[in-house]
Every structure is written in C-alpha cells, then in structure tokens.
Design brief:
The complex is a heterodimer of chains A (782) and B (149).
Chain A (H helix, E strand, L loop, with lengths): L2 H26 L4 H21 L2 H18 L7 H24 L6 H23 L7 H12 L1 H6 L6 H11 L11 H7 L7 H19 L5 H25 L5 H24 L1 E3 L1 H4 L2 H12 L3 E6 L4 E3 H22 L3 H6 L6 E10 L2 E8 L6 H10 L5 H6 L2 H5 L23 H10 L3 E7 L3 E9 L4 E9 L2 E6 L3 E7 L1 H7 E4 L2 E6 L2 E7 H4 L5 H7 L5 E8 L2 E7 L1 E9 L13 E6 L5 E5 L1 H7 L6 H17 L2 E8 L5 E5 L5 E6 L4 E3 L2 E6 L2 E7 H4 L13 E9 L2 E7 L1 E9 L11 E7 L2 E6 L1 H8 L15
Parallel strand pairs in A: 2-4, 9-18, 13-15, 20-29, 24-26
Antiparallel strand pairs in A: 1-3, 4-5, 5-7, 6-7, 8-9, 8-16, 10-14, 11-12, 12-13, 14-15, 17-18, 19-20, 19-27, 21-25, 22-23, 23-24, 25-26, 28-29
Helix pairs in contact in A: 1-2, 1-4, 1-10, 2-3, 3-4, 3-6, 4-9, 4-10, 5-6, 5-9, 6-8, 11-12, 14-15, 15-20
Chain B lengths: L3 E9 L2 E6 L3 E5 L14 E7 L2 E7 H4 L12 E7 L2 E7 L1 E9 L3 E2 L8 H5 E6 L4 E5 L1 H5 L3 H6 L1
Parallel strand pairs in B: 2-11, 5-7
Antiparallel strand pairs in B: 1-2, 1-8, 3-6, 4-5, 6-7, 9-10, 10-11
The chains are: A alpha+beta (782), B mainly beta (149).
C-alpha cells in the first residue's frame, strides 16, 4: 500500500470516529450549526480524497451523504432520528470500505459490488417504498425529495463496475438539479427510515474484522504536535549536556559501578538523541509531492512536454530544512522547465525525444543530503549568459571574454540576472537564482551548477541534515563565550605579538591582514559587541598574540579578532526572543556544557554591522569581477624578500629550490668565494646586496644568521643571501620598467608596492661567471 | 469569588508592584546570566531555566528608574507571555495578595511616560498602593530600541 493511501486511511479513520461522535451530538442538539458544518466538512473531505485516490465507490457513498448533509446545513431539512441513523449507517459503510481498502489495497475487490448493490437497493428503497407508503403530508416533503433524488441518480451509474469513477458524480450533479418534479411525492420520512434497515446486514457482518484492522493502521502512527517534539528535542539536548557533565566525573572516579552506569547512560542518551532527531525527520517526498503539478501546469503554459522523475523520495530531512528548501526547489524546477527544456519541435530537431525529462534525485552523503535536479534541455548558453550579464551591467565586456566556463555559469546566481527575453508570469523578473542561492546558503547549504550545451543542466544542492544541532567553534571575547557556526568558518590564524604588530596593517584606520596575499579586513569582536574594554583590548593586542577567526559572510571572507579560541562543540541552537530580533549580530543562543548560556554569532549580521558587506551587492560584484579577472591572466607565485636596507625585491618562486638559514659561522671560503657546506656539496653564496647596485651594500641586519635562497640549475646550486624573506604571493605581474644591466630585470607592482624583480641569472653571472659555462643567458619569463 | 483577584507582588525602587498570579510561571533567586552585547540596556541577559533560554529584563531600566545599587542582587519573576517565558528582574519579592476589585482605580492622569504605558491601574491597599503591571507591554520593548541597538 502506498504512502498516500496509508495516510488517507489514518486520516479517514480519525475523521470517521469523529463523525460518530458528532452525529450523536447532532441528534441531541439538531441546531448545532458548528457540529453540522464539521460533519459536512468531514464527509466532503472524505469524498474528495477518495475520489482523488480513485476509490470511486467510497466517493459515491460519501457523495450521497454529503448531499443530504448539505440540505441539513442549508436548513432545508432538520435533523431527525431517521436522518441520523441514515448518516450513521453511511458512516458504517464508509468504515467498512476503508477496511476493505486497507485489507485488499484496492477498491476493485469482490466485496465492493455487493456493498454498492446494497446501497443501491437501499437507495432504490427510498423511492420505491415511499410511493406505497407515504402521501406527502408534510410541507417540507417536496424539498426533501431533492436529496433523495440525487441519491437515486448517481447510484445506478456507479454500480456499473469500476473504472469510470469520476463520471457518475459529474453526471449525477446535473441530473439531480432539474430532477425534483419527476418523482414528486417521495415522502422523506419514509425514504429515510428505509435507509438503515438494509444496512446493518453488511456493516456489522464484516465490520468486526475490518474495524480491528482499521485500528491497526491508526494505532501504528499518531499525530503529534510539533511543539511537543521541539520540547522533547530541548529536553534531550539538556540530557546530552548533563550526560557530558557526568562523563567528566567518570575520569576522576575509580568506582566501577559508577563507571558502568555512566557508560550505560552515555549509550542510552546517544540513542535517545538519535531517535528524537528522527521524529523531526520527514521524507523529502513531502516537498516534492507538489512538483509534478507545478511541472505539468508550467509545461502546458509554455507549450512544452515535460515528464518528471523522482528518485530517493524517502530521503529524510529535518522538518525545518524541508520548509526552507520548499520555495527554492520549486523555483529551480520552474526555471528548468521554463528555460532549460526546449519546445518539442526544437527537441525533435536536436534528435531528442519530444518529451523533456526532469529528474530529481535525493540521497545522503557524508552527513549531508544531496539533491540533484537534472534536465535534459538545451543547457545554459554561456555566450548568452555573458551577453546578458554585460547588458545588465553586471560585468564588463572585458571580464566576459576572460571568464572561465564555470565562472560564467555562476553568473546566473548574480542578483538581477535573467536571460528571459521577456518578463512572463513564469520567470524573467530577475529575482531568482540569487534568492535560491541565498536561501540555501542560509541553512548552511551550497549550490553548484553543471551544464553541457545541448545536453542539459544539473543543479546540485548540498544541505545539512538538521539545523537543530550544529557544530560550532566556541570563542571567548570580552570574557564571554560565543559560538560561531562551523559553516561560516574558513580557518584560524594566530599571530604572535611580534607578527601581529608587523602584519596587521591599517588602511585609513581600518585594520587589515594579508592572508596569502589577499587583504583580509579585520573586525574586532570586542569592538563590534561594544564591550567596555574594547579600546583597552585593542591596545592590549599589541602585546598579546592575536587570534583571527577567518569567516565568510555572503562570499566575503573577513577576520574576526577574538580574545581566545576555545574549542569546537556540537551545540543545540535555540532561538532568541522577539525582543532581540533587532540585534542582528546574534543568530540564537545555546547552553554550554556547564549550563551557562552562550550566544551564537550571526556572521552575516556581524559583517553588516561592521560594514564588511555594507554595499553588499556592489561589493560582491566588484569582488567577483576582480576574482574573475585574475585567473584569466597568468598568475605567478613570487617570493618577496628584503634585499637589505628595506628594498623590496622579488623572484619567481619557480626559480627557488629551497629557503635556508645558515649561521654566519658556518660560512667558509673557497678562494674569494663565500661558500657553505650544503647537502654534501659546496654551495657558493652570493650576497645580492653586493651585486645589485640599487641596494646599498650595508652591513647585514642580522649578522649571526643568513637567509639564503637556494637556486638550482642543472644540478648546480647557488645560494643567494638576502636580508629577510618576507612573503610568498600569487600575483599577476606585468613588468613596468626595464632597468638594464644592473641585476634588476624590471619593476612590478606587488601588493600595491613597487617591487624590483631580481634578474637571478644576471646576478649569478656577475658573481660567478663560471656558473653558466656555455649557455647564453635565458631571459626571465614574465 | 470573581470580584477578588490574586496578584504576585514585588518591590521595585520602593514601589509596590503586582502582576496577575496566573501570569507568573515561577519566582527564582538571582541566576548567573549571560549578557547580550549591543542589545538594549534593559535586557540584562539570558538565563538557562532548566534547558530553556529565557531573557531577563531589568524592570528598573524598563521603567526608567535609577539603576539598582551595586551588590544588590535582583530576583527573577518569570512571567508567561505570548512570546514564551520572560524573566523580570525585581528588587524584592512580596506575597501573593488577594484583593477586592472595588479598591481598583485607574492610573491618575498626572502620571506620564513609561509608567503610564506599562501600569494598568492601582489597587488601594490599606497600607500602600499596589501598581499593576501590564506584562505583555512590559516585555515588548519599544520598537525604536529593538531596531537600533
């Protein structure tokens, strides 16, 4: 039995039990409008759902009941014991049929015709008997006919065997409408009394067995308030914390009974946690359920043929996540149908089946859920994407030409981007993929896109299983602990006092740090959180080591300077009250192992507060542009060093074999040449300061140790003595100026500073002409 | 006895306050709390109440009264609100009192400002006046405050 049928059964059993109660209540108080309305709704729902699921007979019975009820509701009829009995009998019939569905799985089993026949007879009885029985004495009689009438019309139609389940109803409705006159004198009272008698026969007979089975389904699952589950979740979270505390004691205890008990507690708690987490899990099929309809309607609207395939419907996700991905998923699917899949004629031209296929796939992988949405459409036309992006001013033409395929694909995630030629109600408003991306990133997920022209597009979403418990880094700032969600975390950098003083630079008062050549804006958490000690801490940072937590907000990395980095922990996220909604720097709170509350930092809110991403969109575009431009050029790794006297020089990293440090005392002399023994060889040393006129040959800053760049060529090595090694940078270099002949190849701008590029070969040749026996000088490749 | 109402009472800056006893979840002594930086000053911090995180609002600040003396530990009156439980920090806890409805009077017009907003009315007890606090209004901070920060 499929999921929907099962749900239908559970729901229907519940409803029917309520019907019993309501009907009895109604009999006692015939004017209770609410009760009547509730009964009507229930029967109506039952009719609708059973029709939807193809249980035609059930639908027909419900339909009969509904007609009668609608009369009651409209006040045309009033409830009397006969009507109540009739309705109760209907309920019994419905219950019996539900039992059949549950037992046999389908309405086509042999028992059904009997039941329908029975009902037919019952309904026939209504109009047959009264003719003999009742002269219509009551004034309401004529009106009462209407329900009876509707009953008569559909039933014979329905009793004609299965497949046409929907037809009868459609036929019945109009038939009953004009009907009233033909059989005018059917007395309602008689008609109604005739309803129950035939009934008891079938209902109780099979009722017993089906009823017991019915309860089997409804007993195996119950509806639980989500609030209660959340509370359970909270309590389990607490239990986990208490368990952790207990486990801490075990390390100090030698009591074996205590150890064994705590071990058991540990296991049970873990299992409990898992089970409770599971209660919040829902299959992704719940969200996917409405997609076929979306696809169908949309395909029809676009004049396309699209089939949707789903795989992994049962993949489970936390309820909150399910909610969060609902809209993005719908949007992606709409996009695929509207933009991705071509019109049938185009598809045929391209030798593809006219019907497009949209494949949804969900599966677990490494503690995450992956969702793939694949269409076999035209793929993304990169040229058109670029063109549109340029047209909308999102990128420049120059950037467009330099862009790699992957980068161009990701242009569709830029805000304001749309390739639709005209705005339709489907898409083209330019509010789209960026929102999808933001929403998915908000729940800690990622989106990736692959597209092959002419073959289709695959969108891959990775999302965490749950949001309730997340891994986080715990830090201390201003004496309080804070948690930073792991998803925002990039890396940790610790600068010792000396380094910190030198490497944290200031641009107009704003601190920045060079992280592998990229400027990383620094944000002092103390200052952001307006701790009183902020200024004190800032000056203190000159003394102590600086801890930088490199985090990412909306694609912008920035460094959060904190007092102390504690540890990573799994934390249970709890929301903050509405009074704190305005404080965007916090995403929630959690309870730490010692029972105290710690706030969870909202990195994005913090970044906005610190103006890291104030002009969010503009900046991100600029940055994206900058990012895009670089790889187009050939980037080169350069070793930056101080040649002495603070003159910055660089050599391509590819020319560097090793970086070494030699004590001055290890320097020996081979003739006039300074040498050191190095890996069983004699390494000649060349003091750059001596051979490059631009660098004044002053005394070395650190006489006791020498920084040496080892350069190797064809098995021979030479050591270049430099003042200090500064950094290794990835830069796009364009040589600005040639200064011939004096050991400098040219000048480049590195990190906004003019830096001389050392002509290594020239320097070596000048110092040791024998190093290059015969080969002509090879120009340094720039 | 519909005419009589029960109020949990407390003292704040020498004034005698009351909240409907049914609104009060519990009264607890001073708890360690975690301050919330950059939040409005009247939010004193967050308390872990048996696994539930509860915000503590300093009633003195909320009612724009002088700040509590150094070293004087406040008490928590945890009240139920539409938005979950919130703790109100008060100076001292009084008894639960049962009051006859006919001693009620509306707040005199001369009282203005925050007090006017948050105090629903006054019960004239024999020895003193009991000010009735509107808890819902008390816990919903002024919009300007929650936004800016």
């Amino acid at each position: 039995m499929d999921e929907i049928t099962k749900e239908f059964l559970v729901e229907s059993y519940e409803n029917i039990d309520r019907l019993d109660r309501d009907l009895v209540a109604l009999e006692k108080d015939p004017h209770a409008k609410d009760t009547l309305a509730s009964i009507f709704r229930t029967i109506h729902t039952l009719k609708g759902t059973s029709g939807f699921l193809g249980f035609g007979k059930l639908e027909a019975v419900a339909h009969v009941g509904e007609n009668l009820l609608s009369k009651l509701r409209d006040g045309v009829l009033t409830v009397n014991p006969e009507i109540t009995s009739a309705l109760l009998a209907t309920v019994d019939a419905v219950r019996w049929m539900l039992g059949q569905i549950e037992g046999t799985g389908s309405p086509g089993e042999k028992d059904f015709p009997e039941l329908i026949e029975l009902l037919t007879r019952l309904n026939d009885g209504k109009c047959v008997e009264p003719s003999a029985a009742a002269p219509a004495a009551l004034p309401s009689a004529t009106v009462a006919i209407q329900p009876a009438q509707t009953v008569i019309a559909p039933v014979p139609a329905i009793s004609s065997p299965p497949p046409a389940e929907f037809e009868p109803v459609v036929v019945a409705a109009p038939a009953s409408a004009p009907a009233p006159t033909p059989v005018p004198v059917a007395a309602p009272a008689a008609a109604m009394t005739s309803v129950p008698p035939p009934h008891p026969e079938p209902a109780p007979a099979s009722g017993e067995s089906t009823e017991s089975r019915g309860s089997a389904v409804s007993d195996s699952s119950i509806r639980v308030d989500v609030g209660l589950l959340d509370k359970l979740m909270n309590l389990v979270g607490e239990l986990v914390l208490a368990r952790n505390q207990v486990l801490q004691f075990t390390s100090q205890s030698a009591d074996s009974a205590f150890l064994a008990t705590s071990q058991r507690l540990n296991l049970i708690t873990t299992e409990l946690q898992g089970s409770v987490m599971k209660t919040r899990m829902q299959p992704i099929g719940n969200v996917w359920g409405k997609l076929p309809r979306v696809v169908r309607d949309l395909a029809a609207a676009c004049g396309k043929e699209v089939r949707i395939e789903m795989e992994g419907k049962e993949t489970e996700l936390d309820k909150t996540i399910i909610e969060a991905i609902k809209d993005p998923l719908t949007h992606i699917v709409r996009n695929s149908v509207d933009h991705g899949i071509e019109r049938p004629e185009t598809r045929l031209e391209r030798k593809k089946p006219a019907e497009g296929c949209l494949k949804m796939r969900a599966y677990h992988e490494g503690g995450q859920v992956n969702i793939e949405i694949t269409d076999d459409g035209g793929g993304i036309d990169l040229e058109r994407v670029k063109q549109k992006a340029v047209q909308k001013g999102l990128i420049t033409t120059e950037q467009a030409t330099r862009m790699s395929e992957h980068e161009a694909l990701h242009l569709i995630f830029l805000p304001g981007f749309s390739t639709a030629e005209k705005i339709t109600n489907v898409s083209g408003r330019g509010v789209g993929m960026d929102v999808v991306k933001t929403n998915i990133e908000k729940i800690g997920g990622t989106v990736d896109l692959q597209s092959r022209p002419g073959e289709g597009t695959t969108l891959k979403i990775k999302i965490p299983l749950t949001l309730a418990i997340i891994p986080a880094l715990v830090i201390t700032s201003g004496g309080d602990r804070f948690a930073i969600p792991q998803v925002n975390l990039l890396e940790l950098v610790r600068l010792e006092s000396e380094q910190a003083r030198k490497q944290i630079e200031f641009i107009h008062g704003a601190p920045v740090y060079r992280l592998r050549g990229q400027l990383l804006p620094l944000v002092h958490l103390n200052r952001e959180l307006k701790f009183a000690s902020a200024t004190a801490a800032a000056s203190a940072s000159d003394v102590e080591a600086v801890n930088i937590v490199v985090v990412q907000a909306d694609g912008h990395p920035f460094g959060l300077v904190v007092d102390k980095i504690n540890d990573t922990e799994e934390i249970v996220v709890k929301p903050l009250g509405k009074q704190l909604k305005g404080v965007t720097s916090f995403a929630g709170a959690t309870i730490m192992g010692d029972g105290r509350v710690a706030l969870i930092l909202d990195v994005l809110g913090l970044a906005q507060g610190a103006s890291v991403v104030t002009t969010v969109r503009d900046r991100s575009l600029l940055d994206a542009a900058a990012q895009l431009r670089k790889p187009a050029d050939t980037r080169q790794a350069l070793l930056l060093f101080d040649a002495g006297q603070g003159s910055r020089m660089a050599i391509p990293l590819s020319m560097v074999a090793r970086l070494e440090e030699f004590a001055l005392t290890s320097v020996e002399h081979a003739g006039a040449q300074e040498v050191v023994r190095y890996r069983g060889q004699i390494l000649p040393l060349i003091r750059i300061a001596k051979h490059v006129p631009a660098v004044s040959a002053a005394a070395d800053a650190r006489p006791e140790m020498m920084q040496v760049v080892v350069y190797s060529e064809e098995g021979r090595s030479v050591g270049l003595v430099v003042g200090r090694i500064c950094d290794i940078v990835q830069e796009v270099i364009t040589v600005k100026r040639h200064a011939h002949g004096n050991g400098i190849y040219g000048s480049v701008v590195i990190q906004d500073k003019v830096t001389d590029l050392l002509d290594v070969q020239a320097v070596i040749r000048a110092a040791d002409p024998s190093f290059y026996p015969s080969k002509p000088a090879v120009l340094l490749a720039a | 006895m519909p005419a009589n109402k029960q109020f949990a009472t407390f003292f704040l800056n020498g004034l005698f306050f009351g909240v409907e006893v049914l609104k009060v979840q519990e009264v607890i002594r001073y708890q360690e709390m975690t301050r919330v930086p950059i939040a409005p000053a009247m939010i004193e911090g967050l308390i872990n109440l048996r696994g539930q995180i509860i915000m503590a609002i300093d009633l003195r600040r909320r009612l724009e009264m002088p700040v509590r003396a150094e070293g004087q530990l406040p008490m928590n009156v945890v009240v139920r609100t539409d938005d979950g439980a919130v703790s109100l920090l008060v100076d001292e806890i009084g008894d639960v009192v049962e009051i006859e409805e006919d001693t009620y009077e509306r707040l005199p017009e001369t009282i203005s400002g925050v007090a006017r907003e948050l105090i629903r009315g006054v019960y004239k007890l024999k020895e003193r006046l009991l000010l009735i606090l509107d808890t819902e209004k008390t816990v919903s901070l002024p919009a300007a405050l929650t936004k800016g920060a």
